[in-house]
UniProtKB/TrEMBL annotation:
Protein name: LAGLIDADG family homing endonuclease
A GO MF label: endonuclease activity
Record field: transmembrane: none
PROSITE patterns: INTEIN_ENDONUCLEASE
Gene3D superfamilies reported for this sequence: Homing endonucleases
Keywords of this entry: Endonuclease, Hydrolase, Nuclease
DOD-type homing endonuclease domain sequence ranges: 71-224
Annotated InterPro entries: Homing_endonucl, Intein_endonuc_central
Presence of keyword Hydrolase: yes
Amino acid sequence: MYSRDIVEETFRLKALGLTDRAIAEQCGVSVQALRHWRYGTRRSPQTEADRTAYCPVCGTGALDPAAYVYLLGLYLGGGYIGRIRNGVDYLSIACCDTWPGLIEECARTISTVFPVGAFQVRRQGCTEVKGTSKHWRCIFPQNGKGMKHSRPIILEPWQQEAVDECPEPFIRGLIHSDGCRVSNRVRKKTDGGWKYYEYPRYFFSNTSQDISNLLVHALDRLGISWRRRVEVKLPNRDAFIVSVSKRAAVARMDEFVGPKY
Protein backbone atom coordinates (compact mmCIF):
# COMPACT_ATOMS: atom_id res chain seq x y z
CA MET A 1 0.00 0.00 0.00
CA TYR A 2 1.52 3.31 -1.09
CA SER A 3 1.04 6.59 0.75
CA ARG A 4 -1.29 9.28 -0.56
CA ASP A 5 1.76 11.56 -1.08
CA ILE A 6 3.28 9.09 -3.55
CA VAL A 7 -0.02 8.72 -5.43
CA GLU A 8 -0.43 12.51 -5.67
CA GLU A 9 3.17 12.85 -6.88
CA THR A 10 2.54 10.41 -9.75
CA PHE A 11 -0.42 12.52 -10.91
CA ARG A 12 1.65 15.69 -10.68
CA LEU A 13 4.46 14.20 -12.78
CA LYS A 14 1.97 12.90 -15.33
CA ALA A 15 0.54 16.42 -15.69
CA LEU A 16 4.09 17.61 -16.44
CA GLY A 17 4.25 15.19 -19.39
CA LEU A 18 6.47 12.41 -18.03
CA THR A 19 5.94 8.89 -19.35
CA ASP A 20 4.54 6.17 -17.11
CA ARG A 21 7.87 4.37 -17.09
CA ALA A 22 9.77 7.51 -16.07
CA ILE A 23 7.26 8.22 -13.30
CA ALA A 24 7.43 4.62 -12.07
CA GLU A 25 11.22 4.74 -11.85
CA GLN A 26 11.24 8.13 -10.12
CA CYS A 27 8.58 7.21 -7.54
CA GLY A 28 9.59 3.60 -7.01
CA VAL A 29 6.28 2.06 -8.08
CA SER A 30 5.20 -0.21 -10.89
CA VAL A 31 3.71 1.00 -14.17
CA GLN A 32 0.67 -1.21 -13.46
CA ALA A 33 0.11 0.57 -10.13
CA LEU A 34 0.20 3.94 -11.91
CA ARG A 35 -2.48 2.85 -14.34
CA HIS A 36 -4.59 1.41 -11.55
CA TRP A 37 -4.60 4.77 -9.78
CA ARG A 38 -5.31 6.73 -12.95
CA TYR A 39 -7.98 4.55 -14.54
CA GLY A 40 -9.51 2.79 -11.55
CA THR A 41 -8.81 -0.78 -12.63
CA ARG A 42 -9.63 -3.74 -10.41
CA ARG A 43 -8.81 -3.58 -6.71
CA SER A 44 -9.22 -6.03 -3.86
CA PRO A 45 -12.69 -6.21 -2.29
CA GLN A 46 -11.44 -4.59 0.92
CA THR A 47 -9.72 -1.76 -0.95
CA GLU A 48 -12.86 -1.21 -3.01
CA ALA A 49 -14.95 -1.11 0.16
CA ASP A 50 -12.59 1.48 1.63
CA ARG A 51 -12.84 3.57 -1.52
CA THR A 52 -16.65 3.37 -1.46
CA ALA A 53 -16.90 4.54 2.15
CA TYR A 54 -16.05 8.15 1.23
CA CYS A 55 -19.22 8.50 -0.90
CA PRO A 56 -22.11 10.05 1.10
CA VAL A 57 -24.66 8.30 -1.13
CA CYS A 58 -23.18 4.79 -1.41
CA GLY A 59 -21.20 4.82 1.82
CA THR A 60 -20.88 6.68 5.09
CA GLY A 61 -18.75 9.60 3.94
CA ALA A 62 -19.48 13.25 4.54
CA LEU A 63 -18.73 16.00 2.04
CA ASP A 64 -16.93 19.21 2.93
CA PRO A 65 -19.88 21.61 2.28
CA ALA A 66 -17.88 24.63 1.14
CA ALA A 67 -15.56 22.61 -1.13
CA TYR A 68 -18.46 20.63 -2.56
CA VAL A 69 -20.64 23.61 -3.52
CA TYR A 70 -17.62 25.38 -5.05
CA LEU A 71 -16.95 22.28 -7.17
CA LEU A 72 -20.67 22.07 -7.97
CA GLY A 73 -20.51 25.62 -9.34
CA LEU A 74 -17.47 24.73 -11.47
CA TYR A 75 -19.18 21.57 -12.73
CA LEU A 76 -22.42 23.34 -13.67
CA GLY A 77 -20.51 26.05 -15.52
CA GLY A 78 -17.79 24.10 -17.28
CA GLY A 79 -17.73 20.45 -16.31
CA TYR A 80 -18.92 17.05 -17.40
CA ILE A 81 -18.66 13.42 -16.32
CA GLY A 82 -17.34 10.77 -18.70
CA ARG A 83 -17.05 7.00 -18.43
CA ILE A 84 -13.74 5.14 -18.59
CA ARG A 85 -14.57 1.47 -18.00
CA ASN A 86 -15.70 -0.96 -15.30
CA GLY A 87 -18.07 1.64 -13.89
CA VAL A 88 -15.28 4.16 -13.31
CA ASP A 89 -16.01 7.76 -14.28
CA TYR A 90 -13.91 10.87 -14.59
CA LEU A 91 -14.98 14.37 -13.63
CA SER A 92 -13.59 16.96 -16.02
CA ILE A 93 -13.59 20.71 -15.41
CA ALA A 94 -12.44 22.96 -18.27
CA CYS A 95 -10.29 25.86 -17.07
CA CYS A 96 -8.90 28.70 -19.17
CA ASP A 97 -5.09 28.80 -19.24
CA THR A 98 -5.28 32.56 -18.62
CA TRP A 99 -6.06 31.85 -14.98
CA PRO A 100 -3.48 29.34 -13.64
CA GLY A 101 -4.53 30.02 -10.04
CA LEU A 102 -8.03 28.74 -10.78
CA ILE A 103 -6.59 25.57 -12.32
CA GLU A 104 -4.67 24.85 -9.12
CA GLU A 105 -7.67 25.66 -6.92
CA CYS A 106 -9.88 23.36 -8.99
CA ALA A 107 -7.38 20.50 -8.57
CA ARG A 108 -7.18 21.06 -4.80
CA THR A 109 -10.96 21.14 -4.51
CA ILE A 110 -11.43 17.87 -6.39
CA SER A 111 -9.06 16.15 -3.95
CA THR A 112 -10.83 17.79 -1.00
CA VAL A 113 -14.28 16.64 -2.07
CA PHE A 114 -13.17 13.06 -2.83
CA PRO A 115 -9.88 11.39 -1.81
CA VAL A 116 -8.74 11.02 -5.42
CA GLY A 117 -5.76 12.43 -7.24
CA ALA A 118 -6.50 15.29 -9.62
CA PHE A 119 -4.50 15.53 -12.83
CA GLN A 120 -4.39 17.97 -15.73
CA VAL A 121 -4.76 17.46 -19.46
CA ARG A 122 -3.56 20.30 -21.65
CA ARG A 123 -5.78 21.34 -24.53
CA GLN A 124 -5.46 24.22 -26.98
CA GLY A 125 -6.19 27.33 -24.93
CA CYS A 126 -7.48 25.48 -21.88
CA THR A 127 -6.69 22.79 -19.35
CA GLU A 128 -8.99 19.99 -18.27
CA VAL A 129 -8.66 19.20 -14.58
CA LYS A 130 -9.77 15.60 -13.98
CA GLY A 131 -10.27 13.10 -11.20
CA THR A 132 -11.44 9.49 -11.45
CA SER A 133 -14.00 7.82 -9.19
CA LYS A 134 -17.00 5.52 -9.35
CA HIS A 135 -19.06 8.03 -7.39
CA TRP A 136 -19.08 11.31 -9.29
CA ARG A 137 -22.58 10.59 -10.57
CA CYS A 138 -23.71 10.07 -6.97
CA ILE A 139 -22.87 13.61 -5.93
CA PHE A 140 -23.57 15.22 -9.31
CA PRO A 141 -26.93 13.68 -10.30
CA GLN A 142 -27.41 16.53 -12.80
CA ASN A 143 -25.23 14.50 -15.16
CA GLY A 144 -27.08 13.34 -18.24
CA LYS A 145 -27.06 13.07 -22.01
CA GLY A 146 -26.80 16.23 -24.05
CA MET A 147 -25.85 19.79 -23.26
CA LYS A 148 -26.97 21.16 -19.90
CA HIS A 149 -29.16 23.84 -21.48
CA SER A 150 -31.15 21.14 -23.30
CA ARG A 151 -32.37 19.39 -20.13
CA PRO A 152 -33.62 20.36 -16.68
CA ILE A 153 -30.93 21.18 -14.12
CA ILE A 154 -32.54 20.84 -10.70
CA LEU A 155 -30.69 20.30 -7.45
CA GLU A 156 -31.57 17.45 -5.15
CA PRO A 157 -32.90 18.56 -1.72
CA TRP A 158 -29.59 17.72 -0.03
CA GLN A 159 -27.69 19.70 -2.66
CA GLN A 160 -29.96 22.70 -2.26
CA GLU A 161 -29.46 22.50 1.49
CA ALA A 162 -25.69 22.58 1.01
CA VAL A 163 -25.93 25.58 -1.34
CA ASP A 164 -28.22 27.42 1.07
CA GLU A 165 -25.74 26.71 3.86
CA CYS A 166 -22.74 27.91 1.82
CA PRO A 167 -24.00 30.26 -0.94
CA GLU A 168 -20.72 32.19 -1.18
CA PRO A 169 -18.46 29.37 -2.48
CA PHE A 170 -21.26 28.23 -4.80
CA ILE A 171 -21.49 31.69 -6.37
CA ARG A 172 -17.71 31.81 -6.54
CA GLY A 173 -17.59 28.50 -8.42
CA LEU A 174 -20.14 29.71 -10.97
CA ILE A 175 -18.31 33.01 -11.51
CA HIS A 176 -14.97 31.21 -11.82
CA SER A 177 -16.44 28.97 -14.54
CA ASP A 178 -18.77 31.16 -16.59
CA GLY A 179 -18.38 34.62 -15.11
CA CYS A 180 -15.97 37.51 -14.73
CA ARG A 181 -15.28 40.76 -12.92
CA VAL A 182 -14.70 43.66 -15.33
CA SER A 183 -14.34 47.42 -15.34
CA ASN A 184 -17.37 48.85 -17.13
CA ARG A 185 -16.75 52.15 -18.94
CA VAL A 186 -19.69 54.41 -19.84
CA ARG A 187 -20.03 57.96 -21.07
CA LYS A 188 -22.53 60.65 -20.20
CA LYS A 189 -23.18 63.88 -22.02
CA THR A 190 -23.03 66.98 -19.88
CA ASP A 191 -23.05 70.73 -20.54
CA GLY A 192 -19.28 70.61 -20.58
CA GLY A 193 -19.15 67.74 -23.09
CA TRP A 194 -18.81 63.98 -22.72
CA LYS A 195 -17.70 62.57 -19.39
CA TYR A 196 -16.49 59.04 -18.91
CA TYR A 197 -17.10 56.89 -15.86
CA GLU A 198 -15.58 53.56 -14.97
CA TYR A 199 -16.86 51.15 -12.34
CA PRO A 200 -16.47 47.42 -11.58
CA ARG A 201 -19.20 44.89 -12.16
CA TYR A 202 -19.68 41.13 -12.29
CA PHE A 203 -21.08 39.18 -15.23
CA PHE A 204 -22.27 35.59 -15.50
CA SER A 205 -23.42 34.09 -18.80
CA ASN A 206 -24.86 30.62 -19.35
CA THR A 207 -27.26 29.14 -21.89
CA SER A 208 -29.14 27.19 -19.21
CA GLN A 209 -31.92 29.19 -17.56
CA ASP A 210 -32.00 26.66 -14.72
CA ILE A 211 -28.32 27.28 -13.90
CA SER A 212 -28.91 31.01 -14.11
CA ASN A 213 -31.82 30.60 -11.68
CA LEU A 214 -29.55 28.76 -9.22
CA LEU A 215 -27.15 31.69 -9.26
CA VAL A 216 -29.77 34.37 -8.65
CA HIS A 217 -31.33 32.26 -5.88
CA ALA A 218 -27.96 32.19 -4.10
CA LEU A 219 -27.50 35.94 -4.67
CA ASP A 220 -30.92 36.57 -3.16
CA ARG A 221 -29.99 34.62 -0.03
CA LEU A 222 -27.08 37.03 0.48
CA GLY A 223 -29.14 40.12 -0.33
CA ILE A 224 -27.01 40.92 -3.41
CA SER A 225 -28.93 42.86 -6.05
CA TRP A 226 -28.68 41.69 -9.64
CA ARG A 227 -30.13 42.13 -13.11
CA ARG A 228 -30.69 39.59 -15.84
CA ARG A 229 -31.12 39.86 -19.56
CA VAL A 230 -31.36 37.41 -22.43
CA GLU A 231 -29.21 37.54 -25.56
CA VAL A 232 -29.43 35.37 -28.65
CA LYS A 233 -25.98 33.83 -29.14
CA LEU A 234 -26.70 31.00 -31.57
CA PRO A 235 -29.82 29.86 -33.46
CA ASN A 236 -32.31 28.43 -30.95
CA ARG A 237 -29.93 29.09 -28.05
CA ASP A 238 -30.24 32.06 -25.72
CA ALA A 239 -27.67 33.23 -23.22
CA PHE A 240 -28.95 34.24 -19.80
CA ILE A 241 -26.69 37.02 -18.54
CA VAL A 242 -26.70 38.01 -14.88
CA SER A 243 -24.96 41.23 -13.89
CA VAL A 244 -24.11 42.69 -10.50
CA SER A 245 -23.26 46.37 -10.77
CA LYS A 246 -24.47 48.34 -7.75
CA ARG A 247 -21.60 49.56 -5.62
CA ALA A 248 -22.67 47.80 -2.41
CA ALA A 249 -23.43 44.56 -4.29
CA VAL A 250 -20.04 44.57 -6.04
CA ALA A 251 -18.30 45.26 -2.73
CA ARG A 252 -20.11 42.30 -1.18
CA MET A 253 -19.06 40.04 -4.09
CA ASP A 254 -15.47 41.24 -3.76
CA GLU A 255 -15.43 39.84 -0.21
CA PHE A 256 -15.57 36.25 -1.47
CA VAL A 257 -15.09 36.23 -5.26
CA GLY A 258 -12.81 38.99 -6.51
CA PRO A 259 -10.93 39.03 -9.84
CA LYS A 260 -9.80 35.80 -11.44
CA TYR A 261 -6.15 34.96 -11.00
